[in-house]
């Protein structure tokens, strides 16, 4: 453009000079033309200098942004490298240098009325000889969940015994190839106890029982059916209150669709099955009989067969996963129509379990929550102390399910 402008100005000047020479124009006229050319050249030079200056500023800003981005990437890489080197010694389960626990994992103690409610629920559980994941898995939120008033407290009951046939490397539950036989009275006892507590929402989970023909699916279903029955009777007797909502956190039943259908069709409200970690780490973290794709298929099948059921899964972070892998796990879960996903910090139960590779910051958990919400999950719980059965999430699900049930009754 600058070259074209110069040519446009030069052409009339040349023509004027030629005409002046032929017609005998005076010297002042020629000087005027030369001054115009000189001014035009100066303007072009100033415009070019300004353009070059802006370009230089743009290049400088882009260069600075690249420097800052590279610095941030280096800091993230350094953090991952530092945490990994501290947490592991050559890939074994033992680590000589324990990662210091960050301040955000500090848990407030239960006190006052919450303490009384917690102790009441604890004594009831122990008095009936029932097992809870809250205690067995040493959940950090037990005080918060058990400390609520009647109708507000939540608990996770573990049925089918306290011994699992699988040996996941993150889990503290006892393992055996031949656990004790099931207690045929357990579905009735659990249902009666939970109903008497007056809980508004309960989570039933279980160990894996691969040695049984039905892998415990009928036992699971009976417990749900008794819970619904006794809860309805309690509401009718009192002529007030709400029937209990039941979430089942189930094994994968080795992908057997008939067994999955037995549990999913038992009258429960939320079907949960934990994918636990990203696909790459699954063989290292979970028992060899579990599988990332198998777990996805369980959840996909339930949503397809029982579209009104809420489906849910949970992912532990801090095992060595990358951010891209976490996001891909979200995508995989949304593709099968999953409704609810939770993210929590992996905490090593004992020195014999997988080491912690990194403590994920609350800010990073918040980012994962935002991404998951943008993907369309109905509910996302994401934080260092979040667990698959978490009071805040259960209260939200209870509200959501009751609202939907009331809407359907009015139709």
Structure overview:
It contains 13 helices and ten strands. It is α/β, with parallel strands linked by helices and 411 residues long. It has a domain at 112-210 and 230-410: Alpha-Beta Barrel (TIM Barrel). Strands 1-2-5-6-7-8-9-10 form an eight-stranded mixed β-sheet, sandwiched between helices. Helix 11 (323-335) runs parallel beside helix 12. The longest helix is centred in the N-terminal third of the chain and has 61 residues, at 27-87. It is elongated. The termini are far apart. 35% of the residues are buried. The model is unreliable at 1-26 and 84-96 (pLDDT under 50).
Brief sketch in words of this structure:
The protein is α/β, with parallel strands linked by helices and 411 residues long. It has helices spanning 2-23, 27-87, 112-127, 133-136, 142-146, 186-197, 217-238, 257-264, 282-285, 292-305, 323-335, 362-375, 391-410, and strands at 131-132, 154-159, 163-164, 174-175, 201-206, 245-249, 270-272, 310-317, 340-345, 379-382.
Biggest beta sheet attributes: 8 strands, mixed
Mean pLDDT: 78
Supply Rg: 34 Å
Structural class by SSE content: alpha/beta
Which CATH C-level class of one domain is it?
Alpha Beta
Helix tally equals: 13
CATH superfamily of one domain: Aldolase class I
Give the overall silhouette: elongated
Helix content: 40-55%
Count of β-strands: 10
Alpha-carbon distance between the two ends: 71 Å
Residue stretches low in confidence (pLDDT < 50, at least 5 long) are 1-26, 84-96
CATH architecture descriptor name of one domain: Alpha-Beta Barrel
Proportion of beta-strand residues: 5-15%
CATH fold description of one domain: TIM Barrel
Q: How is the largest sheet built, in terms of strand order?
A: 1-2-5-6-7-8-9-10
List the secondary-structure elements in sequence, H or E.
HHHEHHEEEHEHEHEHHEHEHEH
């Amino acid at each position: 453009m600058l070259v074209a402008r110069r040519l446009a100005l030069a052409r009339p000047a040349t023509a004027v000079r030629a005409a002046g020479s032929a017609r005998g124009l005076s010297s002042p006229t020629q000087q005027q033309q030369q001054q115009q050319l000189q001014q035009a050249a100066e303007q072009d030079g100033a415009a070019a200098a300004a353009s070059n200056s802006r370009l230089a500023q743009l290049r400088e800003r882009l260069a600075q942004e690249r420097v800052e981005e590279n610095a941030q990437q280096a800091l993230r890489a350094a953090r991952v490298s530092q945490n990994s080197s501290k947490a592991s010694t050559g890939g074994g389960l033992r680590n000589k240098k324990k990662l210091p626990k960050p301040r955000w994992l500090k848990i407030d103690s239960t006190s006052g009325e919450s303490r009384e409610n917690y102790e009441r629920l604890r004594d009831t559980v122990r008095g009936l000889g029932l097992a809870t994941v809250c205690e067995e898995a040493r959940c950090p939120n037990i005080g918060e969940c058990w400390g609520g008033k009647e109708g507000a407290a939540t608990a996770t009951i573990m049925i089918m015994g306290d011994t699992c046939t699988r040996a996941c490397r993150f889990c503290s539950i006892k393992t055996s190839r031949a656990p004790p036989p099931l207690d045929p009275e357990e579905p009735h006892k659990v249902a009666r106890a939970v109903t008497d507590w007056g809980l508004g929402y309960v989570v039933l989970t279980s160990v894996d029982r691969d040695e049984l023909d039905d892998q415990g699916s009928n036992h699971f279903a009976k417990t749900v059916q008794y819970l619904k029955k006794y809860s309805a009777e309690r509401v009718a007797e009192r002529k007030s209150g709400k029937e209990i909502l039941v979430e089942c956190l189930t094994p994968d039943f080795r992908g057997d669709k008939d067994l999955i259908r037995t549990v999913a069709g038992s009258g429960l409200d939320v079907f949960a099955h934990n994918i636990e970690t990203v696909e790459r780490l699954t063989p290292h973290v979970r028992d060899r009989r579990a599988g990332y794709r198998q777990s996805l298929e369980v959840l996909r099948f339930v949503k397809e067969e029982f579209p009104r059921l809420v489906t849910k899964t949970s992912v532990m972070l801090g095992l060595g996963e990358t951010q891209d892998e976490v996001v891909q796990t979200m995508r995989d879960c949304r593709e099968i129509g999953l409704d609810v996903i939770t993210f929590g910090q992996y905490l090593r139960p004992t020195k014999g379990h997988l080491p912690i590779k990194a403590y994920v910051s609350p800010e990073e958990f918040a980012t994962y929550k935002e991404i998951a919400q943008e993907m369309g999950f109905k509910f996302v719980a994401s934080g260092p102390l979040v667990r698959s059965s978490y009071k805040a999430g259960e209260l939200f699900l209870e509200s959501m399910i009751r609202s939907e049930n009331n809407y359907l009754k009015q139709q």
